[in-house]
Design a protein that fits this description.
The protein is mostly helical. It is 97% helix and 0% strand. It is rod-shaped, with a radius of gyration of 32 Å. The termini are far apart. Keywords: Coiled coil, Membrane, Transmembrane, Transmembrane helix.
Length: 75
């Protein structure tokens, strides 16, 4: 009987260990998915800000070029 109880004890310990590893895997996967979604939202916000600044820069560059041409035309 003593050997059988030891085998059952090791079996339960092994099952608990495997369940613990599976639990950690699920937690890591869930946190990775959440982190990915947060980073994706931040990326989209930065992309939007970049496009807005790019448009403003291009407009200002066109105005600068026009003023530069006017200045050269006066000389």
């Amino acid at each position: 009987m003593g050997r059988k109880k030891k085998k059952n004890l090791f079996r339960y310990i092994y099952i608990l260990f495997v369940l613990l590893l599976v639990f950690f895997l699920v937690v890591i996967l869930a946190s990775s998915i959440i982190r990915y979604k947060v980073n994706l939202n931040e990326l989209n916000q930065v992309k939007k800000q970049y496009e807005e600044l790019k448009e403003k820069y291009e407009k200002n560059l066109i105005i600068y070029e026009k003023l530069k041409m006017l200045r050269e035309g006066r000389k």
